[in-house]
Amino acid sequence: MHTITIEDIAEALGISKTTVSRALSGKGRISEATKEKVRKYAAEHDYQPNVMARGLAQRRTYNIAVVTPDDNETTALAFFHRCLVGIISGTEEHGYDVLITAERGNRVNELERIVRNGKADGVILARTFIDDKRIGYLTENNIPCVVIGSSQVEGVVSIDNDNVGGSREMTERLIKRGVKKPALFGGSSEHFVTAQRLEGFDSALRENGLEIDEDLLFMDMHDKKVLEDAIATALAAGADCLLCMDDDIAERTLKICKAKDVLIPGQVSVASFYDSPVLEQTAPAISAVRYDGQSLGRKAAETLIKMIDGVGVSDIPMEGFEIRLRESTR
Amino acid sequence: MHTITIEDIAEALGISKTTVSRALSGKGRISEATKEKVRKYAAEHDYQPNVMARGLAQRRTYNIAVVTPDDNETTALAFFHRCLVGIISGTEEHGYDVLITAERGNRVNELERIVRNGKADGVILARTFIDDKRIGYLTENNIPCVVIGSSQVEGVVSIDNDNVGGSREMTERLIKRGVKKPALFGGSSEHFVTAQRLEGFDSALRENGLEIDEDLLFMDMHDKKVLEDAIATALAAGADCLLCMDDDIAERTLKICKAKDVLIPGQVSVASFYDSPVLEQTAPAISAVRYDGQSLGRKAAETLIKMIDGVGVSDIPMEGFEIRLRESTR
DNA sequence: ATGAAAGCGCTAACAG
DNA sequence: CTGTTAGCGCTTTCAT
């Protein structure tokens, strides 16, 4: 049951290990004839290279490490898991595997162990902290690294959803359908993504000749009471559309409106800049911008592997989105 | 920036590589004195063994592989992600790391690559198929393997939630609070877990001197219409409690009841045998049995590592649960 | 109790 | 174009 080695092939074919190695890797000059011969034999005998040996020899693990949030919030977790699936497929296609570790606050410990042990050639960070120690550690030690989501740090490669574009397009589509006075309910104003969504909203208004009304902008809608008040204010001011920056805010907005017997979409439209499966299940279903975690992850993996292979990565386009219009807007 | 090796230690201390290796691993006869000396030096100089080299020498990777479902259902995904976090912590504590790959149907390909490449010493399967090819492959090749969830296959170690116990206790608690005529709405009757939940329900009724009423048992409640009819039937028959086998059924049940102006818990109680964060957010919040994915994962990891280390694992107790009584039951 | 030497399977100069 | 020769860092006989 011993699996076949490069040496077995060499013996069987009466050539040297080196030649076999070259034939298989395609590096160095080698005749087509022997290359074919070797590859054929390898394929027939189902040769599998021993990654440990290769790793030891060329100081490469052919693993990338992914740091997952040990979060507990269901939709965030699920989104990250979809990213993960994308990362895995992107990685495996290039002959790499994925080593996973969990975030334990803004610490470098796990990462350090993995990297120092030589268990991974690069790292994907699923989420970053303000003043992230891990990023510091990785850049100092010259370890290739890609961040998912917007990174505030200069010089760090990040793969992100097109939050500006998505928010702009959703806003624009609603304006085209007759919205004149949209109100915006945002999440934490410390988050980068909040600023991006605001920017998209803002530019859609401008481009469509609408004034931005500061009185209809509400940020940090974490608390239930705060959101209720904001909605009341917006409706009193004659808002005809409630734009929510994420699915959570959107769902709560819907509940509040229902409780107040505000008709949706009859009286006002409701839409979200961030989709999640719950929004399809509400009554009425809420229109939202949908991002695809899986392709985000896949692109992160591909970019990282390019970096590991020493291929320069120039600017990375944002990941796309899809506008899903549902019953909450007309 | 070169990290220190076993040879460096040997040279510095004027002893041989072998001795250092023995001092560090604790294998073989060695004097306390030199052992201490070596360990002290290693610690001071922050020695990190090169896992590749060790792996190559002793045909061990110190990795375990986890196969994740590439599912898309949000709460299932989130639950699995919590398991994953548990797996990671259980694994890292024992000096192992986690390699992750995604399921692509009932195939062995990815697994085979990982195992044949010698990238992992054992496998955790997050979900199994009827007639699972991966299990066949793993057992045939003598690769240690642990399954999360109930495994139908004889001889395969599985780590599972105590579905019977949880369902029984929830049912019993409700009976103690006055329920006399509970109806049960189940998921797919082909799933093992459905049978387990039914068993728990059944035994709670028996133990509390209640007759089981076949007319109040409804399985395969996938379709909306089917569930509506079932609920109508149950209510007409005088059911005073609607027990749902999972969070999805429970949420839909709640909606249907609201639409029919059935008061909860005034007229009937509603509870679920499987909790998820959405159940806390419904109005009224739904009582449910809560399982802890993280400790499930941790136990799976620990069990697998024992198997890898050749420690026999005898019978594994089920993972516990917690009954969360909320507003939907009185 | 310690050391010398021979691998584990592969890659990478350096010759030819 | 191909082979020879050293390693990569660690473990493991087998001597001493």
Automatic annotation (TrEMBL), chains A, B:
- Show the Gene3D superfamilies listed in the entry: 3.40.50.2300, lambda repressor-like DNA-binding domains
Record's keyword terms, sorted: DNA-binding, Transcription, Transcription regulation
**Which domain of life, per UniProt?**
Bacteria
Please indicate if the UniProt record lists Transcription regulation as a keyword. Answer: yes
- Name of the protein this chain belongs to: LacI family transcriptional regulator
Enumerate the InterPro entries for this protein.
Answer: HTH_LacI (IPR000843), LacI/GalR-like_sensor (IPR046335), Lambda_DNA-bd_dom_sf (IPR010982), Peripla_BP_I (IPR028082)
Can you tell me which residues the record assigns to a coiled coil?
Answer: none
HTH lacI-type domain location: 4-58
User: According to the entry, what is the taxonomic lineage of the organism?
Assistant: Bacteria, Bacillati, Bacillota, Clostridia, Lachnospirales
Q: Where is the signal peptide?
A: none
Q: Name one GO molecular function term.
A: DNA-binding transcription factor activity
For the keyword Cytoplasm, the answer is no
